[in-house]
Amino acid sequence: MMTSNPTSPATYQGHLTAGDGVLASRLHKPTHPSLVQVIFNNGSYNSHLISLQNFSRGQLITPFSPHADFASTKSYSTVQTGRNTHIELNSDLLYCNHSCDPNVSFVIGDAQDKSSWKAVAEKDISKGDILTFFYPSTEWHMSQPFDCACGSSSHCLGKIDGAHSINPATLSKYFVNNHILELKRNQIHADTTLSADNKQQLLNLLQ
């Protein structure tokens, strides 16, 4: 009979704690102990992830495999990979929080190809840095919208509820996955308040 790996998707339980840092710390089994470390804090959704290595901009931090797997339902812990598809990370990447000035990109090459899902350094990262990514780069509608507390005085967008509510000019400043770009283009095309010229101007921003 096969036994479960301590860090396999079947045994990773971070997403089952509803953001409770104390409970999560008791259940935690690190998945990437040489790359990242989860810092658990009291309260709900207060834990975060730090880097244990230096990474250069554009460098692969880690693929999502073999931990990530398809999710049957959307939740606070899932990552959107396509128009209607979502995955559970099942790894310490779960604790990579949102920032409006992120240093990590979650890259979804193909919604059905697990080998194309990965975390990449969006800027140079030093050992000890808190790792963050831009939630709307993967999420069209957030399952749990929230008021951002990233602290970026020049970038913070305030309310984060997914890419659907972000104007194209702002969205164009970020790395955004193809499924989000497609949904935003469809939103622009369907907007009856925009003239044809205005639609084209907005679409050009998303090239």
From TrEMBL:
Residue ranges annotated for the SET domain, each copy included: 91-135
A Pfam family reported for this protein in Swiss-Prot or TrEMBL: SET
InterPro entries the UniProt entry points to: Flavunoidine_N-MTase, SET_dom, SET_dom_sf
Name recorded for this polypeptide: SET domain-containing protein
